[in-house]
Write a structure and sequence with these properties.
Number of domains: 2
CATH topology of the largest domain: Rossmann fold
Oligomer: single chain
Family: Belongs to the SIMIBI class G3E GTPase family. ZNG1 subfamily.
Distance between the termini: 68 Å
Number of strands: 14
Order of helices and strands: EHEHEHEHHEHHEHEHEEHEEEEHEHH
GO molecular function: hydrolase activity; nucleotide binding
Shape: globular
Radius of gyration: 21 Å
CATH superfamily of the largest domain: P-loop containing nucleotide triphosphate hydrolases
Protein name: G3E family GTPase
Pfam family, one: CobW_C
Largest sheet: 7 strands, parallel
Catalytic activity: GTP + H2O = GDP + phosphate + H(+)
Amino acid sequence: MFHPSDVIPVSIVTGFLGAGKSTLLNRLLHAPALSDAAVIINEFGEVGIDHMLVETSGENVVELSNGCLCCTVRGELIDTLADLLDKAQTGRIKPFSRVIIETTGLADPVPVLKAVMAHPAIAATFRVDGVVTLVDAISGLKTIETYDEAARQAAVADRLVMTKTDLVDEDTVSKLRSRLSAINPMAEIVDVNDEIASRPTLLVAGLFDPESKPGHVGEWLSNADTGHHHHHHHDVNRHGEHIRAFALQTGPVDSLSTIQAFLQRLAAQYGEKLLRIKGIVAVSNADAPFVVHGVQETVYPPRRLKSAGEDDKGNTRLVVITRDLREADVRDLFDAFLNNPVIDRPDRAALEDNPLSAFGFKLS
């Protein structure tokens, strides 16, 4: 029986772009113990696909796609939690015993924690049970040194899950484990292939305790200003001055190999500028679409999506997140592999900096 007085645990699953959050959630959500979990999925950019990639038999899946879960959408997260509670109490959705929040890879987790812990009405019903942070063993060390968000994700974690450890040597795994221990000495570090990473108990850490974290975590949580200044509230497709998201869309393709060849070329040509690419590919005469994804220079094998909505079966959508890479360059390469003619068009980033560039004027 669902009572308004029930305290509902909230698990936060975070980690940088491509760390494997959706893959881990798919593994965990098959467990009967999480059959009544509500899942909130936050995506960066106006076109989202992650909500289609998380396979759950439940109806309590909510997508937030207004940008990363920082100060700009913290209010929306609070509203979403309140709305889920109201719907469960009034019987519009089935009762849920846990909320799982999957953040975008670019999210600073501190505002997410504050949204649950500091808002009086939310804190009366929800409590942060724990933070699980995934770290990619292939690029994790460099990512932590390059992006503050990745370091903060590791610092607040109750459990740190190293992913893709089977794709690197033991020395790399050892160095990553040491670095993570230095950042967050109290967090439990597990390998994604460990048994605990396959059980729902991975998400259960007890009441989140800032006192058990490095000293600066408490300071982050107590400060009204999180220090998260990327000024992208005006554009959900931008994260700071360098990172942007956009979508490549087309109808069904004749062969999956065409898209895979495009991804391989994109990764080889642009490497570190390609932070993440993930998409759903509709293939002519195939009964289900395929999921494709890659991180920087690495493109992973495609897999068949078990289910998709009718609107998704005929559409190919790739979400691309880049750093200092022109959108036009990626689109031109995509069109070339699809044998589409390239039409002269002004780059969107250039237009934003100089709206008159489309008419041949330059700003001095």
